[in-house]
What does this fold into?
Amino acid sequence: MDEERKDWANHKSEALDNYIASMRALVDVISVGAPGTPACTPEKLRKLIKLIGETAERKLTTLVEQLIIVAAEGIVAGNVHDNLEAYIEKLMVMQTQLEGYTDAVNEEVSEFLAELEIKDCSIYEGGEGYE
It folds into this structure.
């Protein structure tokens, strides 16, 4: 693969960075809580993050499958085909990494909530924290 195609494929990795940023933003929103919504427990938050990760994995798998078909049957030669192949390769790498990123976000959330619970309990002396 030539350098230009690698650069183009690396540019597409911004989608993964955006996914991670979205997950972190979601954590910020849920941990603060929207007005009028019930509190979100750590377990609910972990399940939500896992669900978002699984949904992203399924959508990425579908996208890769569809692009493989396009590259094999629709755009079978030329620069566009070569660029499409490079993009598919990058997506497949992202696909293998996505579960790890979701797990990492879940770990960060768990650590954040553990710290929050400690601070909360120290403020309210003997508070129950999260259940």
Remarks:
- The first helix runs from residue 3 to 11.
